[in-house]
Backbone:
């Protein structure tokens, strides 16, 4: 007789494994299975090579509203609290490290925006963030940001040495390791889910190797979450824009993370410079912004599934027209198309992006990182004919489909909390929310 699980989680990235951890520590559920098509956890978008390794706390993300900034700060704190509570000192070093962070404004227009943000409620939210309005002050913490810059180019920076960088692959491994300490919590790797089917008894999940039964399913499979939702008849008014990025490497030229002032209302992060938690000898610049007709970057076999998820019709066409012909988004897309051209692209990327952060770097100082950069799924609301900014959770009858674009990795434990609350409510089980909040110092 086939064993029936209470919950099957599909996708062992950072949100799936965080949900597994939260269920194991803070719920009444006993039989939980996680299924992953790769050989290990977090080998796609949560892999350290495929994201900026940033714990987004709201200090350097100038495209966030004040409300989203407050929420992001609390979500990030969950990860820090988890690392301090659950991990040994040696384990923490492999997962999370302190890192200084800076928001850099170049030129009077950006300086004016950053001044206004700092003088708002921002100062009360982040009392530890310092405003550096003199080049010599900026040079003390990030000398290469000032070195080689034209004298008449004005700068302003917001700076903190209280930031973090995270290896989300290792974070996911830690979540999984704790969850699997429960004997009845299981994991299956190298199994690709082919079909999820609703039955009178719950759900049947078919993989390339097996068939499993469950009361509920939680799909945390990146852009594929929408694909599976649509196959079950959910999310009909949603489409997907698969935004992928590339990174360039240089020798170490920055002491910490340096972010630019973001363009307002745009979910795509401006190019920033980052240390690499896996290699202290390099600095990473990126990501570029490219739109791919794929659900997984570099996987051409995911293209048909992308178009099924896009569900192209008149509403989708109008939504894409509104998005791609938006003045700011159109400019970003055109710029990044140029950055993709061999030889010319690196020259243009260096001049227009990298030199805004480190003026002295030359194109020959940069190397395109091979097989680095993932897909950030941006959901399209075809009713509103616009992007649905932030994460999207699609609820079904005992099924939950989670799509978490940047900064989804930062919010992994908050997403896990929300996922657990839905699953517990549907299955009439307890999720010990107050204990979760107390242990991980969550205030919202």
Residues:
């Amino acid at each position: 007789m086939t064993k029936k699980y209470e919950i099957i989680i599909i996708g062992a990235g950072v949100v799936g494994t965080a949900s597994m951890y939260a269920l194991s520590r803070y719920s009444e559920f006993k039989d939980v299975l996680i299924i992953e098509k790769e050989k290990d956890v977090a080998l796609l978008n949560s892999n350290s090579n495929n994201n900026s390794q940033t714990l987004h706390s709201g200090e350097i993300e100038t495209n966030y509203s004040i409300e989203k900034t407050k929420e992001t700060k609390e979500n990030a704190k969950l990860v820090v609290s988890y690392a301090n509570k659950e991990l040994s000192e040696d384990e923490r070093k492999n997962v999370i490290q302190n890192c200084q962070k800076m928001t850099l404004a170049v030129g009077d227009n950006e300086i004016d925006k950053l001044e206004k943000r700092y003088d708002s409620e921002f100062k009360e939210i982040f009392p530890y963030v310092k405003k550096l309005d003199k080049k010599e002050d900026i040079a003390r913490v990030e000398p290469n940001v000032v070195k080689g810059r034209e004298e008449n180019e004005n700068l302003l920076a917001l700076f903190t040495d209280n930031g973090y960088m995270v290896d989300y692959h290792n974070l996911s491994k830690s979540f999984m390791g704790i969850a699997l300490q429960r004997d009845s919590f299981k994991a299956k790797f190298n199994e690709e889910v082919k079909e999820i089917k609703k039955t009178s008894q719950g759900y049947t999940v078919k993989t390339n190797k097996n068939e499993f039964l469950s009361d509920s399913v939680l799909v945390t499979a990146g852009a594929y979450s929408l694909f599976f939702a649509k196959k079950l008849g959910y999310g009909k008014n949603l489409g997907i824009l698969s935004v992928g990025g590339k990174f360039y490497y240089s020798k170490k030229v920055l002491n910490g993370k340096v972010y630019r002032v973001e363009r307002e209302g745009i979910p795509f992060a401006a190019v920033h410079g980052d240390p690499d938690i896996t290699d202290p000898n390099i600095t990473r610049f990126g990501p570029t912004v490219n739109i791919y007709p794929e659900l997984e970057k570099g996987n051409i076999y995911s293209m048909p599934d992308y178009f099924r998820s896009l569900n192209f019709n008149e509403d989708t066409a109008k939504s894409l027209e509104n998005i791609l012909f938006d003045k700011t988004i159109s400019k970003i897309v055109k710029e990044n198309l140029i950055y993709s051209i061999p030889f010319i692209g690196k020259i243009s990327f260096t001049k227009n992006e990298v030199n805004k952060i480190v003026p002295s770097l030359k194109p020959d100082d940069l190397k395109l990182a091979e097989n680095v950069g993932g897909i950030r799924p941006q959901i399209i609301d075809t009713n509103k004919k616009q992007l649905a900014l932030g994460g999207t959770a699609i609820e079904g009858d005992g099924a939950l489909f989670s799509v978490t674009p940047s900064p989804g990795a930062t919010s992994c434990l908050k997403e896990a909390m929300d996922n657990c609350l839905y699953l517990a409510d549907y299955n009439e089980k307890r999720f010990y929310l107050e204990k979760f909040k107390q242990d991980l110092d969550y205030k919202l």
Notes: The longest strand covers residues 155-166. The radius of gyration is 22 Å.
